[in-house]
Amino acid sequence: LHGDHLSRAIGRIAGQDGKTRFAIENATRTRIVLAETRIHVLGSYQNISLARNAICDLILGAPPGKVYNKMRNVSKRMSERF
Question: What is the per-residue pLDDT across 43-52, written as a single tens digit (0 to 9) for each?
C-alpha cells in the first residue's frame, strides 16, 4: 500500500479515538502498535493470528461492526475452551 491507501488503512485500524484498535486488542488479548507505515502485533501466536485476520479484514474494506461481531464470537469460543 502506498500514499492515500496506506493512510486510509491505518486510519481504519486505529478507528475513531483508537476505538477499533482497542476493541481488537481487548478481544484478542494482544497489543497493536501503529508506527508510521508498519503495524506491530504483540502477543501469543494464536492471539496474533486472530488479530491479524481482523486487521486484514479491515484493510480489505469489511465494515467495523462486522469485524467486532466476528471478534466477539471468537473471543467467546476461546474463553469457553479454557
Answer: 999 899 999 9
Q: How many helices (H) and strands (E) does the chain have?
A: 4, 2
In angstroms, rounded to a whole number, what is the distance separating the alpha carbons of residues 63 and 47?
Answer: 21
Return d(Cα 34, Cα 18) in angstroms, integer. Answer: 11
The CA distances from residue 15 to 20, 32, 36, 50, 76, in Å, are 5, 13, 15, 18, 23
Cβ atoms 12, 58 nearer than 8 A: yes
**Which pTM does this prediction carry?**
0.85
- The contacts of residue 59 (CB under 8 Å, 6+ apart) are 1, 9, 12, 13
Measure the CA–CA gap between 30 and 25, rounded to whole angstroms. Answer: 5
